[in-house]
Write a structure and sequence with these properties.
Oligomer: single chain
Protein name: Leucine-rich repeat-containing protein 55
Number of strands: 10
Strand content: 5-15%
Number of helices: 3
Shape: globular
Organism: Sphaerodactylus townsendi
Largest sheet: 8 strands, mixed
Structural class: alpha/beta
Radius of gyration: 20 Å
Amino acid sequence: MTLNPFFVAVVVVFASAVTGCPVLCTCRNQAVDCSGLRLFSVPPDLPLDTRNLSLAHNRITAIPPGYLTCYSELRVLDLRNNSLFELPVGLFWTSKRLSHLDLSYNNFSHVVADMFKEAYSLVHIDLSHNPWLRKVHPQAFRGLVQLQSLDLSYGGLSFLSLEALEGLTGLVTLQIGGNPWVCSCTMEPLLKWLRNRIQRCMSGSEDYGEVCMSV
């Protein structure tokens, strides 16, 4: 029986996507390490069962739309120390299991509304050391009820809306130091909220079932 050449090609491509490792990267135990390779763009193909992806310490300026669509097993995504200034809409559409996301040391200026939409299993987000970060949309973290740790330290924030944090019912650790905060009346709701959470943490009480927070 003669096999259709197109069918053979499809099988070969699929097998390569399942088992192949990007050139120069290291793949082991469902972890793909492409860090420190001076990459200007993301590797085009990853093993489909990738759980841990590190693209840290490169020169990547953009993530293509739909880049993560095929990698529904992804748990950890490390994009620190690149040149990213935005993420494409719908990047996390299939990232239902993503729990740790590191975007530190990049060039983000805004955290837009629903930036992490669909990645509702996120436990940790690191946006620290983005020196141009000036604005966090009030609905930037909407739906992330499992988020426990959020790092917004060492950016360019002068204001942060309380609305951006109120929906994060699982938040335990919030890091916001190292920003040029402007202490005006618009910051009063956030300051009261933080003071209340910190005092409760120091006293050891947990009113209304809330988890105390360290800042």
